[in-house]
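Quick start: read one record
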Amino acid sequence: MKKQFVALIVLFFCSSVTLADDSATLEAVERSARAWLELTDAGRYVESWSEASPQFKTQQSEANWTKKIQSIRAPRGTMEARYLAAAGYTKTPSGFSDGDYIMLQFYVTFSKSGLSRESVTLEKQIDETWRVAEYEIK
């Protein structure tokens, strides 16, 4: 009985550490995503491209990104509120090289278009930072 109790305590401790690590990782990823999204909210599209992951930059040039995001964001008006709706981890998202990725989905309200959904995929970099690898809005 004593061995079972000790095993239960060890199991509880290990799961708590894992949950704490997951929570800290999610907080770091969400902070990175929100900082990047603030750049797009402010119309600082060149900076948002510069702050994105190398994979993001190989998918589109700075000029193409700026043109694309302007055409998507301008008709929506200013961002009024953003709420994290979901988060998921994967090693191999479709169309990406293997790595560590976290996909976040936000519900966002804009002044002209109302409610939208943003999907932001962040990629873990060699220096342990998380950078945006993909952005979609619907």
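Confidence is low (pLDDT under 50) at residues 1-20.
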